[in-house]
């Protein structure tokens, strides 16, 4: 089983590139952002909690996220690979993921960190906001999300560097060009 984390700032293209990887490798896609938005749409208790954080540009608490993801990993323990999109986003989430995968005799193999200049991130998210109707794609919330990323999520890159899993990827160019860069790293796992 191959486990790949797609990492990066808001708007770095995690969701976009996850699609490319699923199409090529047939891995399962676990996106915490998509899961939270689905719960918000359904109006569940989890969705009500998540909405308050997402609308404010904040991270949803670690215990909520870990509780949500635990059974999903359990369901997919026999799959050939998982793309983790937007998870983990904090060091405690990364430690929980490590424990969850360890229970199934596996681990995170690669962390692909999409690096995109801040002005491009803002431009992409504002563009998406015009069509998506996402409550967090407005300038004020985008700026809060970028700060949260810098303070709470970026330190996770150091954690994965220490574990030898981190790869920095240039996240600008066409979707296809960026995908090729990611494929090279995943393909090299087999060699
Ligand atoms: P996410 O849903 O993970 O969203 P994201 O970081 O905003 O976007 P992503 O990087 O996937 O961007 P995309 O490919 O869509 O999180 C949303 C919120 O949920 C978080 O702020 C947080 O509150 C909460 N949350 C989620 N996971 C959590 C966790 N683990 N812990 C706590 N809270 C959590 O790309 C953006 C735009 O750019 C798109 O419009 C796309 O078309 C465009 N784009 C992509 N690649 C491009 C390219 N190469 N060129 C031009 N445009 C491009």
UniProtKB/TrEMBL annotation:
Entry EC no(s): 2.7.4.3
GO molecular function annotation: AMP kinase activity
Keyword Membrane: no
Pathway(s) served: Purine metabolism; AMP biosynthesis via salvage pathway; AMP from ADP: step 1/1
Compartment(s) of residence: Cytoplasm
EC top class, as a word: transferase
Residues binding AMP: 32, 37, 58-60, 86-89, 93, 134, 145
Chain residue ranges for the region called NMP: 31-60
Keywords of the record: ATP-binding, Cytoplasm, Kinase, Nucleotide biosynthesis, Nucleotide-binding, Transferase
Catalytic reaction annotation: AMP + ATP = 2 ADP
The keyword Transferase is assigned to this record: yes
Superkingdom in the source lineage: Bacteria
Pfam families, sorted: ADK
Residues engaged in binding ATP: 11-16, 128, 173
Gene3D superfamilies, alphabetized: P-loop containing nucleotide triphosphate hydrolases
Quaternary structure and interacting proteins, as annotated: Monomer.
HAMAP family (alphabetical): Adenylate_kinase_Adk
Free-text note on domains in this protein's UniProt record: Consists of three domains, a large central CORE domain and two small peripheral domains, NMPbind and LID, which undergo movements during catalysis. The LID domain closes over the site of phosphoryl transfer upon ATP binding. Assembling and dissambling the active center during each catalytic cycle provides an effective means to prevent ATP hydrolysis.
Free-text function comment from the UniProt entry: Catalyzes the reversible transfer of the terminal phosphate group between ATP and AMP. Plays an important role in cellular energy homeostasis and in adenine nucleotide metabolism.
Family matches, as PANTHER family: NUCLEOTIDE KINASE
Family recorded in the similarity comment: Belongs to the adenylate kinase family.
Name this protein carries in UniProt: Adenylate kinase
Species in which this protein is naturally found: Falsiporphyromonas endometrii
Protein's gene: adk
